[in-house]
Write a structure and sequence with these properties.
homodimer, alpha+beta, L-amino peptidase D-ALA esterase/amidase, 6-stranded mixed sheet, 5-stranded mixed sheet, 10 helices, globular
Chain lengths: 386, 386
């Protein structure tokens, strides 16, 4: 049995293959199958209004709260391919249903790669046949096959009393030269209703993937799926389920942040002292997306003026004369005025902690994780797509 | 008489000096004086809620629609300096009023430079005295003295029948290592009420400076001031005034875009086919601020998928299946699907024109100017502030 990943929980098999979608010749298709006895599932998808064809297919599939299989391809997003793209995504779903002998509606489809290129369906068809032959304890191989510009595969797991949760993930936000997207698959052998799974997944993603903000971009393909086999026979409480799902999501989010393209700094931004958690999140996101702030982080520059200039534009309650900023717990700005020694704070380490108090005395608080804006980010993302 | 700039219209004098605020030893203070016979004026300021002390002073000064002088310093933003910062900005105002013999409330103050450093008031005081001695036809010198990381001074003018408009500007958005801010001064010898000036200035800035969006950041100090001396004796119609003020604003905005830090591409984004001009502006801004799109522009990469992914997140009406994208007037995406030859479009030139039709058939349209995201942008903005 796997020690981590999607085949760590009982009741799941996986397969990976090289279908020839990626020009590199690396593995580019994966399949995850839930062998039951239960098939409850939940999913969250991109909020982008331009959605890839596989997202449309998967949204329909999850509507009844059940999934038995998820097929993945990397190297091609199957996004913005018109009616043909929709047909190809539906064909992938049908082929997998036939291969693993389930209903069409029990299959979700996830794709990641370049937008606007037609899927090579001959390769995909042969790939799905190979995936059907290769099912087994292959979570690690599946995690490798969904990678695009990821430099390492991302897997996680957590063991509870008699049950467990496993996960794999790739990408983060829109990070790479049209070859990114965040795809995450979470498996558990707990027994849980689709409602319970949905609650656990939404609670976990809200504070993990949703607050991991590298460049503010949102892919057309982002998909996080949670499937429960019930194979452990254990039905955890909602709280226990929430906690376990949160743990693997947090672990995968950490790995995504650490492997983000061109990253030299991991930056954690906490905003407090504003009207609500939503306002705090607005302000934290505004700061996390500010290029001048991100460049300063790249330069290990304790330039707190940029923090003030950025949060001053945020949709959040604030007292403009009572804003405080802390870098690595050292005050650099108090009451919107520089603190002694502010320019000498050491930000040379890889991890930088930024805390902003908007000064209203309000209870709102939120944390966002982001990265710096580096030369490598520009280099990777300016490379020619074709 | 100057051939362009703020002393091109009759009734204005300017001065520049080196007060020693900038470590470089370059000129760092300027003064513009309206000798009348009229003193009507208008101004627009940063929308940032964290505002520099000089902005507070200038907002109060313009409240009665009159200004007789504007003093500028570069090298120090006098922002986030608490009560002392407010006192220093007020002291600058008072010193200038004494020097040029006007009321305190007739003087506006503009500062640009690093946030969170106290102004060296001894230098500033001596500088103001020198400015008072040096008043004359010195628009060009004043334009040079307000530069921070600008590589060239920015001046503009337009001549009408018997009257004219002149302008100087510096910076653009928040572009440089804490040393930016957009400051613009516009002068005219037309006779115009402060209401007419206000209308002309707001109409012009809405479609020039407000749609020039380099990195989405907004300075604590941005200020655009328009003063009318009435020295020509000509009272133009509102339409004539609007047109002339728009022309100099557009000219200065072009110069700001061309001189933006690290720029290798000038990108013009037009969005149409959505519910309103405001929605079109939202979508154009969202695209203009998308780092992945900006990196693609740097790489001359016709990666239209990033355009779709970016506008799909915008707060604008769209038909997700009917979006069209044109690069330099060539269709690269029609009905949300790649157009033939899309990957071969030549974007190697400096100017790139991007047009996006959101496909609803709506009348909304807007244009935003932005730049690419280059290595130099990261380099310039990651340099240590202190």
């Amino acid at each position: 049995m796997s020690t981590t990943g999607i085949t760590f929980p009982a009741g799941f098999e996986a397969a990976a293959t090289t279908a020839g979608i990626k020009p590199s010749g690396n593995p580019d298709m994966a399949l995850v199958v839930n062998n039951g006895p239960e098939f409850n599932a939940a999913a969250v998808f991109t909020r982008n209004r331009v959605v890839a064809s596989p997202v449309k297919v998967s949204r329909d599939a999850i509507a009844n709260g059940q999934l038995k299989a998820v097929v993945y391809n990397s190297g091609n997003a199957n996004a913005c391919n018109g009616t043909q793209g929709d047909k190809d995504a539906a064909a992938m779903q049908t082929l997998v249903a036939q291969t693993v002998n389930v209903e069409v509606r029990d299959v979700a489809v996830c794709s990641t790669g370049l937008i606007g290129e037609m899927l090579p369906m001959e390769n995909v068809t042969a790939g799905i046949a190979a995936l059907g032959e290769g099912l087994g304890d292959n979570g690690a191989q599946a995690a490798a096959a969904i990678m695009t510009t990821d430099t390492v595969r991302k897997e996680a797991s957590v063991s509870k009393k008699g049950w467990s949760v496993g996960a794999m993930g790739k990408g983060v936000g829109m990070m790479a030269p049209s070859l990114a997207t965040m795809l995450v698959c979470i498996t558990t052998d707990a027994s849980a209703t689709s409602e319970a799974l949905n609650d656990a997944l939404r609670a976990a993603t809200a504070v993990t993937f949703d607050t991991l903000d590298i460049d503010g971009s949102t892919s057309t393909n982002d998909t996080v799926i949670l499937m429960a086999s019930g194979a452990s026979g254990v039905e955890p409480t909602q709280e226990e389920l929430n906690d376990a799902v949160f743990q693997v999501c947090s672990d995968i989010a950490d790995q995504l942040q650490a492997d983000a393209e061109g990253v030299t700094k991991r930056v954690k931004i906490t905003v407090e002292g504003t009207g609500s958690d939503t306002q705090a999140l607005n302000a934290a996101r505004t700061l996390g997306r500010d290029n001048l702030f991100k460049c300063a982080m790249f330069g290990s520059d304790p330039n707190w003026g940029r923090v003030l200039a950025a949060v001053g534009m945020a949709d959040a309650d604030m007292d403009p004369d009572n804003i405080s900023v802390y870098f690595n717990d050292q005050p650099v700005c108090l009451k919107t005025t520089g603190a002694p020694g502010a320019r000498e704070v050491d930000l040379s380490g890889t991890d930088i902690d930024v805390r902003v108090d908007l000064g209203t005395g309000g209870e709102g608080t939120a944390t966002v994780r982001t990265t710096d804006l580096s030369h490598d980010y520009v280099e990777i993302n300016s490379a020619y797509s074709s």
